[in-house]
Amino acid sequence: MSNDDFKQEFTGRQRLIAGLWPPRVTRAQLIVALLLFGLGLGLAIQVRSNSDSNALRGARQEDLVRILDEVDDRTQRLEDEKQRLDAQRTELENSSDQAEEARKQTVEKERQLGVLAGTVAAHGPGITMTVNDPGGAVRPDMLLDALQELRAAGAEAVEVNGVRVVANTYFSGDAGAVKVDGRKITAPYVFKVIGKPQDLEPALNIPGGVVQTLEKEQATVHVLRADDIVVDALRPAERPDYARSSGQ
C-alpha cells in the first residue's frame, strides 16, 4: 500500500469517527428517555410481594383466585402506564411544535408530582379505611404494613388522621400511642385513599393480610368505597439545602 493510499484510508477513518462522536441527542429523545426512566423506576417501586407463604399454603381456592386476580390487575395497571408513556412519546415525536408539546407535558408532570409530594390537594375515587382500636393494641408497624399494601395496590394519594402521606412518611411510637412523621395520632385511625377501589379493598383482605392481622389484636376494620375521596392535608414545599436547578 502506498503512502497516498494510507493517508486516504486514515483520513476516511477520521471522518467516520468525527461523524459518530460525539453523539447528537435531540430534545425529543432526551424527554423520551426520561419518561421511560420514570416508568422503570415506578415498576421497581411498585412490584413487591404482598402475601405470606404460610397463609397461602392454607388458603382456600377462592382466596387464591382473588389473589391471582389482584396480581393480574396490577399487571394491567403497569401495562396501561406503559401505553400512556408510549403515547406521550409518539405525540412528542410527531408534534409540529415539539417545544410547546414538551411544555404541556412538563406542566402535567409537575401537577402529578405535586400530588405525590403532598403540596397540592387531590380528589378522586378511592376508599376510606377506619381502624378502631379499643384495646390500644395496634402498633405503628401494623399501620405501616397497611400503608404499604395500599401503595402496592395503586394508591395515588393518602391521608392518615389529617397527616398527608408522602414518600418518606414514617410511623413511630408504641401500641396505642402512634405517631405519623412525628405527629401523635389517636384511634380511630382513618386512612383516606385515592385509587381504584376495586384494587385497594381486596389488597387489604387477602389471607394473612392487613385486616386479619389487625383483627387478631381485637381491632376492627371498616372499609368503605367512594366515588370521590378528598385528600386535602398539605405538606409545605421543601427547598433543597444544596441542590439547585442546572438552569440557574
From TrEMBL:
Keywords: Membrane, Transmembrane, Transmembrane helix. Pfam families: DUF881. InterPro entries: DUF881. Residues 79-107 are annotated as: Disordered. Residues 79-92 have a biased composition (Basic and acidic residues). Gene3D superfamilies: Protein of unknown function DUF881. It comes from the Bacteria. The chain crosses the membrane at residues 28-47. Belongs to the UPF0749 family. This is DUF881 domain-containing protein.
